[in-house]
Design brief:
Number of helices: 14
Shape: globular
Order of helices and strands: HEHEHHEEEEHEHHHHEEEEEHHHEEHEEH
Structural class: alpha+beta
Number of strands: 16
Length: 415
């Protein structure tokens, strides 16, 4: 019983750090200048560690595109040869304080958002969002995809950085709280959050560069309903890193997938990954595509669910079912179910549809295994072949094996 009490106390410590976090978006800079350990020949990817021979189609496509973008290869064949000769290294974004949606591929010259969790001193980074459809994060690498990346690097990134400096940073916790009251869930639906993001930055963008560039960046923000997702992910990462490393805590501080494996990390179990094969999302598809075209789940964006939003806040976003499938009643039930496997509720993230009850926060591996209830995840769906891109959006859950492995390791560690 004393052991159980110690675990519960540790979990309260970890969750209190989540609740007390104050992530602030402070700037934009090239990844090579700010991400610890970043270098030109290092490619960061989503999910747990993986080697080239096990990478899925969309992740391989994104790697090829990144090598072309960085000038490390001239064409697809040369990019593959560069990898096979061992001239580049791979590492998870999470090993370098970063997160990336879908393939998550991040390279040295890509601009990244910088988020600081000021009460705890943790920092996190995420690339700029490219938009929907045929984009690098879904494994596409055609010339129009690369041209978009160059514009983000040369125009949007520097201008956004200057605007954020003028603004004195943006309070991401307040932004997330507000978007949840406006019909978003913070992962697949960010319509309100992106609109707020654009509105907050617009006056500073107008004063931060040539009028034509400022107009182009404001148009980019206005037309991209996912624009705020990447800084939201970085805010969640900086928050959860503050809760990581609490001895005897069974709170999950990371869920991520690389298109082959789904992995979790637990506060009291150090930096060890617990992995199992990723499931294929089930959802709604763009015309011409179907379930057989879908790749297994991919991306670091499950950091949102880990932090208590996304699929955990579906009750706040009944309209999301038009994008991922299901009914508004199912969205409410999804959130109610997540209270069964979490330690606390976050009063900062209140859900109007549940009488402003706080979102379920702090996934406990013990509760997952005991109840058999797995976390709910809202996700985009990538084509299984490289070069195609996004083909839909849907719902998925992690494999139970990740949680049973972690609980077994925890039990062995505490005797």
């Amino acid at each position: 019983m004393r052991s159980m009490g110690a675990i519960d106390d540790a979990n309260q410590t970890a969750v209190q750090r989540i609740l007390d976090s104050q992530p602030v978006l402070v700037g934009v800079a090239p990844a090579g200048d700010v991400i610890p350990g970043m270098r030109r020949t290092l490619i960061l990817h989503a999910g747990p560690p993986i080697t080239w021979d096990r990478m899925s189609g969309p992740l391989r496509g994104a790697v090829i595109g990144a090598l072309l973008f960085e000038g490390l290869a001239r064409d697809e064949r040369e990019a593959v040869a560069v990898v096979e000769r061992g001239e580049v290294e791979f590492a998870p974004c999470h090993h370098h304080q970063a997160v990336g949606p879908m393939a998550g591929v991040t390279t040295a010259s890509m601009p990244v958002y910088i988020v600081e969790n000021r009460p705890f001193g943790t920092r996190a980074f995420s690339t700029l969002n490219e938009g929907y459809g045929k984009v690098l994060r879904y494994g596409a690498y055609s010339e129009d995809v690369l041209a978009r990346l160059r514009w983000l690097r040369d125009v949007a990134g520097p201008l956004l950085g200057r605007a954020l400096e003028r603004a004195g940073g943006l309070d991401m916790k307040a932004l997330i709280a507000r978007q949840l009251t406006m019909g978003d869930e913070g992962h697949n639906r960010n319509v309100a959050g992106s609109a707020l993001f654009a509105r907050m930055l617009a006056p500073h963008l107008a004063r931060s560069g040539p009028a034509e560039d400022a107009a182009a960046v404001m148009t980019y923000l206005a037309e991209n309903d996912l624009a705020v997702l990447n800084p939201v992910m970085a805010a969640c990462k900086a928050t959860l890193d503050a809760a990581h490393g609490v001895p005897r805590s069974t709170v999950v501080t990371c869920m991520a997938r690389n298109g082959t494996d789904f992995g979790i990390r637990v506060s009291g179990l150090g930096d060890r990954w617990f992995t199992a094969p990723a499931e294929v999302p089930v959802g709604l598809f763009f015309p011409g595509y179907g379930q057989g075209d879908a790749n297994p789940d991919i991306g670091d964006s499950t950091i949102t669910e880990t932090a208590g939003i996304g699929g955990f806040a579906m009750a706040a976003a009944p309209a999301i079912v038009k994008f991922v499938g299901g009914t508004p009643a199912m969205a409410v039930q999804a959130t109610l179910e997540m209270y069964e496997i979490t330690v606390a509720e976050n009063p900062a993230f209140a859900i109007p549809q549940l009488d402003f009850r706080g979102t379920p926060t702090g996934i406990d591996i013990r509760r997952v295994v005991r109840t058999g209830i797995l976390p709910r995840v809202n996700t985009g769906i990538a084509h299984r072949r490289p070069g195609v891109g996004q083909i839909g959006a849907g719902l998925v859950r992690p494999p139970m094996a990740c949680f049973t492995q972690a609980l077994e390791a925890f039990a062995a560690g505490v005797g």
